[in-house]
Amino acid sequence: MRPYSLDLRTRIVDAYKAGNASPMQLAERFGVCLATVYNYLKRQKTNKELSPKRRSPSLRRPTNDPAVQKIVVELVREDNHATLAEYCERLAQRCKVQLSVPSMCLLLKNLRFRRKKNGARFRTRASSSSAGA
User: Is residue 88 within 8 Å of residue 100, measured between CB atoms?
Assistant: First the structure.
């Protein structure tokens, strides 16, 4: 989610200073959370800048990188029976990008790869249940 604009932030603080509304009414009027209004008022009282903080480049998702996506597609085409953890390890070896298992799962889902079920596991379960009957 993108941060709220500086213009919106200043309008909220200015409306509160004018005494036109309570923080709850401001939150409803401007369509923001009540905690957001309180945060802006607190920042204004402590003479901190109201502008949004700059995001660290380290917080950008590597899963949005087309080069990483291309490598993951290659990994899946090479061995589509690998586990998510194995894909994470292979990706780290190839391009020095560390992804967690849940991030790899999300990336594969966004790339429209479906997860395969382990057919051997289902065959053994089916055969053991039919043998007992």
Answer: yes
